[in-house]
Amino acid sequence: MSLASVVGKMMRVMPKCMHASAYKKGYGPLAIRAELQHRGLVVDDLDDLLATLANNWQDVIERVYCTKYKQPPDSAQEKAKRYRFLQQRGFTPTQIQTLFKQYLHYSPTDY
Asked: Which domain holds residue 46?
């Protein structure tokens, strides 16, 4: 299943007021799931849809991070602040740790 077909399928189950894809806006899988459930939408294959996008979540989280932060964090407090920001955007701890490990060269014990 291609990315376009998955996003298209998500768009069909979202209400019209959510015409712009949360995925394209830089929200993670947890935020998308919560929004759909909050609006009372039951999508039987939601986990399958989100899993299909799994390879692309790291691209999304990196784009979100690089758009917001232009410089590397200069303290543990700043790293924690950035971690919380990404959590609030709906990314999983594993996705955030992967970003920090690969992109920022931090191990999970650094934050």
From this structure: 3-110
